[in-house]
Each structure stands twice: as structure tokens, then as C-alpha cells.
Amino acid sequence: MNLQIEAEPTGNYLLRPAGVFDGEQLHPGWAVLVRGNQIAQAGSADEIKAPNDTRTIDLPGDTLIPGMIEGHSHLFLHPYNETSWNDQVLNESIAYRTAEATAHARATLLAGFTTTRDLGTEGAGYGDVGLKKAIDNGIIPGPRMIVVTRAIVAAGSYGPKLAPELDLPQGGEEASSVDDIVRVTREQIGKGADWVKLYADYRWRPGEPSRPTFTEEEMAAVVRCAHDAGRPVAAHATTAEGMRRAILAGVTTVEHGDEGTPEVFKLMKERGVAFCPTVAVGDAISQYQGWKKGVDPEPERIRAKRASMKAARAAGVTFIMGGDVGVFAHGTNAREMELLVQEYGFTPLEVLRQATSANADALQMRDRGRIRAGLLADLIALEGDPTKSVAPFRKVRFVMKDGVIYQQP
User: Fold this and answer.
1) Closest CA relative to residue 409, chosen from 127, 56, 10, 52
2) Beta-strand relationship, 274-276 and 379-383
């Protein structure tokens, strides 16, 4: 893979597409003026007065939208049908995984995702902090990164797990009491975590169902500690009880929610907790395990996911668009968006809002996710009208991040 991108530096640009989706609705005939790394104007093309040194970029037939935001990624993982999670954590060196993550960051950016919330290095330590710095300093191309570093797991609950006498490197950082979990939270924040992630439940042994791993008191201690430091908290939670405890503890987002019930989603709505359902990861893993989609009956995990998603929609929870990309290939982030439309009843417009303005709001990033004067010049152009069809989601024709052009027709 060629990692070189001929990036054009910041300047004055007038972008003239067929229409502009501003994060909320589509505006045919609009144009956008960029100055440096900010949006200067957005409105009718006839009304924008551009400086003399402005370069005009025509994007006929395309829709200009805010740079999309990936809500749940793992840049230090690659698809499990290539290499199992155990083997990635145990057999791939940190140097090798960082080199892979560099390629994954480039693929993410060119897929139109100018920001990614990366929810754990899965055994690669604080590699995400260094990767983020390299991107921010212009050493490598990639999206803006929101990082959680190692993630927090209950002692004994995570993996890899082989012979019981082996003390193996873990995919997360273990903690086993309120004092311990507070110490770990503070250390991760001090070493670069923008968010804190904890595992509210997991499988204690291979083949077992997931069960709660932290008490509500332990998770509440994480939340208090993180909030004191100005950091939100994300909770991996697949069981109804794990979700309930995490919500009551005060987390900002719940990831997965596979076994969520109407009662739990009602509580989530009442507490203002956002939901990242990651439908693509279950779809991918089921296929890796032998499910022939469209031929075989749906696995139980897919049927359960449909029920939980129906309950979440009925409760009116706030959705985050994020697919757990890394389990499936980086650069194919739109897989989550496509499944939400094709199999879970969302409209293309709903999903497009999730990937832009809704994610920006839920993830507390007010400087992006919309096309509005004064916001960051993170902009992409998709071929066609993405408010009407999922087909444009993968047809990225133009990518600008921070006022720098990384891809253009």
C-alpha cells in the first residue's frame, strides 16, 4: 500500500458542489468558502464573495458534507479473518502493529472519516497516543484521533487466556477494587487518554456468556475520577445488567448493547446516555464463524441484535454511528452505515446525521460535524446524493481535513 498522499496546504478555497449537506439538511446550489483551517462562509453560491487569491474547486454531481466521524474504531487491530485477536495481541510486535495502524489511519481518512474515536489499543499499550501525535504533527496522514489508550478491564475477565499458569500480556489494563480502578484511570489520563473506556461486562471464560465484571460503585468511581479531569467515559456493555450499572454510574456512552431491553433503553434515554450499537461487528464475526449470509438462517446474536435495536429506537435513545472497525477492514467504515439502512430501518438521512452532527454532539466535539462559518474545515464530497441512498457513502471524491486537501477529483 502506498502511504504517500499529495496533500495541498491550507489556503483560500471555494468549493462548488451540486449541493451541501450541512450536518442537518441538504442545500442544493450552496457553496463553501474555506480560509486556512476554518469554514469562512456557507450559503448560496451566488452570494459568496471570495478573495482574489481563492482557488475554486468544482465538484459537479457531488454533495459536500462535513467530514464524517467514526464513533468506535480500533486502529491497532485488523480483521479477525486475517489474524485472530489472540494472535494479534500475543504474536504481533508493537512496532509491527504501529506500522499497520499507520496504514489504517490513512485508509480511514481517505474513506471520508476525518475524526475517529479509537476505543482501545488492545494490547498495544499507549501506541494510540503516539499515533495521534504523529498525525497532528503532519508526519503521517490520518483522521483526528480521540484516544482511550489501554481501556480498563476487571482482573481476570479479559484476555488472551491460554494455560492458567501463564501470565500473558492483556488486551486491556486490569483493575480489581475502587482504589485500583481510580489509580488506573488517573494513570491513563495522565499518559494521554482523551476519554476513559471501561468494560462493564465480559466473558469470564471462553465459551461462557458475558456477565457483569464491575460493580456500579466501581464504575461510578471511574466516572467521578474521569469527570474531575474533564474526560467522558465509554462503557463496553453487552448485557442488560452491565448496561444498567454503567448507565446508573454516569457513563457518557454505551457500546454494543446486544442484550439491551426496553427497560434499560428507557433508563438510557432518561439519563441522556448515547448508544453506539456497532451492528457491523456482529455481522462480520458471524460471517467469520461460518454464517453464509443470505443463505443460512440468522444466528441468535443477529436476531437478538435486531430486538435490542428495535427497543432502542422505540425508547428514542441518541445513536452514535460507529462500527467497531478493525474487526473488519479499515477504510470500509461505511459498512455500519449501510447495515443501519439496509437491515435496521434507518433512512440514509438519519445515518448521515449520525455520522456528522449527531456524533459531534454526543462525543462533545462542537468544533466539527457541521458546515457552518467558524467551524473546522473538515469537509468531504460524495458522488451523488447521500441523503437519498447509501451508495454514495463509499464514493468519496474529495477529502479536506483542517483546511488541507488530501484527495480531489
Assistant:
1) 56
2) unpaired
What is the distance between the alpha carbons of residues 35 and 67, in angstroms, rounded to a whole number? 16
**Beta strands of 125-167 (E only): which ranges?**
144-147, 152-154
Radius of gyration (C-alpha) of the chain in whole angstroms: 21
Q: For the chain, how many structural domains are there in total?
A: 2
**Cell matching residue 179:** 482504589
Instruction: Quote the DSSP letter at residue 367.
Output: T
Do 81 and 49 fall within a single domain?
A: no
**Cell numbers standing for residue 254:** 454505551
Provide φ and ψ at 69, rounded to 5°: -115, 120
Per the CB < 8 A criterion, the answer to whether 48 and 92 are in contact is: no
Q: pLDDT digit string (tens) for 220-278?
A: 999 999 999 999 999 999 999 999 999 999 999 999 999 999 999 999 999 999 999 99
Q: What separation in angstroms does the CA of 108 have from each of 72, 104, 325, 330, 376?
A: 12, 6, 10, 6, 18
Cα atoms in the 13 Å half-sphere on the side-chain side of 75: 36
pTM of the model: 0.96
Helices (H), 142-209: 178-190
**Tens digit of pLDDT for each residue in 177-225?**
999 999 999 999 999 999 999 999 999 998 899 999 999 999 999 999 9
DSSP 36: T
Question: 190 and 339 share a domain?
Answer: yes
CA distance 335 to 13: 31
> 125-139, 162-176, 305-319, 348-362 — which is least confidently predicted?
162-176
Which single residue is written with the C-alpha cell 463496553?
236
Packing angle, helices 279-288 and 334-342, rounded to 10: 100
Distance CA 395, CA 155 (A): 44
Task: Give Cα 242 distance to the centre of its chain.
Answer: 21
Average pLDDT for residues 58-84, to the nearest whole number?
98
Beta-strand ranges (E) seen in 253-319 are 253-256, 274-276
Please give the Cα distance from 63 to 65 (Å, whole number).
Answer: 6
Query: Which triple of cell numbers denotes residue 201?
Result: 461486562
Structural domain range at position 39: 12-67+369-407
For residue 68, give the H/E element and its range.
Answer: strand 68-73
Fill in the DSSP letter of residue 196.
Answer: E
Cell of 199: 468494560
In a domain, 6, yes or no: no
